[in-house]
Inverse folding.
């Protein structure tokens, strides 16, 4: 472990081998930091935060801060971070908002400058958050999602895997997996073909999702009828889309209808 002389590391923190802590950074009580993490200058890692291996945390990030929730009464809650995340300058990630609750950031995520992840969010793996993305509390983010700059997420919404969200979109309902969602108000623009192709989806898988897109958002069928027709498609990704739709509590963002474009 290499700690700059101006840094403050609590004796009650558990810091593994190979960790570097930069100038003026602070690591509070009851923090756990895994092997090979790099912590830059002026970083604050607050109580009850557990960080996995090989994470890189840039200048002035605040990790494990108190939740911005008026109901919070300083209960013991947690933030857990996986491995190999890149956490940029001035990022803020808050711990859970009630006794025993937890905010979770998975592995291999990229959080660019100024990203905010609020209390009780559950973030999966391999996501990219561009500058200024702000997620309110209790949001679920699946895997392989691209958030363009300054996307804002309302509390309790869900973001489905392999989605792409356009810059400055105001998200107040669930974002469907596999599609591009953009605008204010946001609409589904179509299948995220470029993103799916880059991550190894086959032509057959992409075509199956195109069929599902047409049934769900382009056919004007009643929702249950569209889902029943989608269920005939023998594809794991279409099944995931169906389950995501069925699990929506806030409703999901739709495509813009033709008469709305004129």
């Amino acid at each position: 472990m290499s700690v700059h002389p101006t840094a403050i590391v609590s004796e009650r923190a558990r810091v593994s081998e190979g960790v570097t802590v930069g100038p003026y950074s602070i690591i509070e009580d009851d923090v756990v930091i895994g092997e090979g993490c790099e912590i830059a200058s002026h970083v604050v890692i607050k109580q009850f935060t557990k960080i996995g291996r090989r994470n890189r945390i840039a200048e002035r990030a605040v990790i494990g801060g108190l939740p911005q929730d008026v109901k919070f009464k300083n209960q013991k809650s947690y933030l857990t971070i996986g491995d190999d995340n890149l956490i940029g300058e001035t990022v803020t990630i808050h711990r859970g908002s009630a006794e025993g609750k937890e905010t979770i950031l998975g592995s291999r995520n990229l959080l660019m400058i100024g990203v905010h992840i609020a209390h009780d969010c559950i973030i999966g793996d391999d996501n990219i958050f561009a500058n200024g993305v702000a997620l309110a509390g209790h949001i679920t983010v699946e895997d392989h999602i691209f958030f363009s700059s300054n996307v804002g997420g309302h509390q309790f919404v869900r973001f489905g895997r392999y989605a792409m969200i356009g810059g400055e979109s105001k998200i107040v309902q669930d974002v469907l997996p596999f599609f591009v969602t953009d605008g204010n108000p946001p609409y589904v623009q179509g299948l995220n073909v470029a993103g799916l192709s880059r991550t190894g989806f086959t032509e057959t898988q992409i075509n199956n999702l195109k069929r599902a897109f047409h049934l769900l958002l382009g056919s004007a069928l009643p929702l249950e009828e569209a889902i029943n027709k989608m269920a005939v498609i023998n594809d794991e990704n279409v099944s995931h889309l169906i389950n995501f739709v069925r699990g929506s509590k806030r409703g999901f963002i739709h495509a813009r209808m033709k008469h709305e474009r004129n």
